[in-house]
Amino acid sequence: MTQKSLDLETLRLLVAVDHRGSIGAAAHDLGLSQPAASKRIREFEARWRLRVIERSPRGSRFTDDGRAVLAWAAGVIHESDLMLASLAALAERRRDTLAVAASLTVAEFMLPRWIGELRTAHPELHPHLQVVNSAQVADLVRAGQVDVGFIETAEFPRDLAVTPVGSDALGIVVVPGHAWARRSVPLTREQILAEEFVLREEGSGTRSTFERALRARAGVALEAGSTAAMLGAVLAGAGPAVVSRRAVTAYVETGRLVEVRHGLDLRRPISAVSPPGRRFDDRAEELVRIARLAARRDAGDPDGPTLSG
Question: What are the tens digits of pLDDT across the range 68-87?
């Protein structure tokens, strides 16, 4: 048996007839002609096999069945209008928020500038940022918990759409007293494999980029979940660290840390990720565009993002 559906517009018409006292006046209020309104009511009665309005030369009046329908219609229309208003409010609130997930280097050294530029253009926008590693960014995007994710690894998730944004490069840094600080020739792969490092946790773009270039698992002296913790550990003598070169510029320039030459390719792409086949919404798309333009400016390349470093 086919389930019948309610015709909300006809219910609204019946309620208007009750309020205005005639089909003609109700039709006028709803932007209908009187014949069109009468036809709707007849079709409603035929569909449900009910007589809701008695018509006579003296006018129209609701039957007992019609009064019952009116009572139900008032509640249905109220709930429908409440849902419509709630959906509109939810959509408006959703339009003014932007959920972003980003890996640590992007969140610390790039995203604040991108979001600042976005909010300059859209001051009503209130972004919400989750800072996690690249693998967790991909998980949040898969789960639909964020509008856009930014990762810093060449190990792209195969089940997500990847949009190139820019690039970053890692560096190996030590304290000035470390034996590597005085080297005049680049470190070899064998020398790097023989050392233990201060590293990010597995799943981070920094860790995966380093081990991808090394073609082996790195020796770990300490795992740290933030750049600040890593640098603090290096300065305390825990060992060399592999970090974004953006993060250590001031430390190297002031002599607190020394960047060591090596033979590894520690460049890595910065990418935006989204579910396959689904476009970014307007605000997420604009944030990605701002990120790409910023990367071009940083690289001095007017044509597009490149790997540098």
Answer: 988 888 888 888 888 887 77
CA torsion, ordered 43, 44, 45, 46, to nearest 10 deg: 50
Q: Which domain holds residue 70?
A: 8-93
Q: Tell me: the pLDDT tens digits for 249-308?
A: 999 999 999 999 999 999 999 999 998 877 778 889 999 999 999 988 876 644 433 333
The residues with which 244 forms a beta bridge, in sequence order, are 170
d(CA 183, CA 207): 24
Cβ atoms within 10 Å of 185's Cβ, excluding its own: 7
CATH of the domain at 184: 3.40.190.290
Rounded Cα distance, 199 and 241, in Å:
6
Q: Would you say the C-alpha torsion 182, 186, 192, 197 has a positive or negative sign?
A: positive
What single DSSP character describes residue 187? B
CA atoms of 75 and 285, how far apart (whole Å) = 41
Give just the sign of the alpha carbon dihedral 134, 138, 143, 147. positive
Residue 195, classified by CB atoms within 10 Å of its CB into exposed (0-12), middle (13-18) or buried (19+), is middle
**pLDDT by residue (tens digit) across 274-284?**
988 777 788 89
End-to-end CA distance of the chain: 69
Q: Are residues 134 and 155 located together in one domain of the fold?
A: yes
Q: Which of 272, 285, 270 is nearest to 149 (CA)?
A: 272
Q: Which single residue is written with the structure tokens 């607190």?
A: 256
Domain-terminating residue out of 93, 108, 137? 93
How far apart, in whole angstroms, are the C-alpha atoms of residue 253 and residue 80?
A: 64
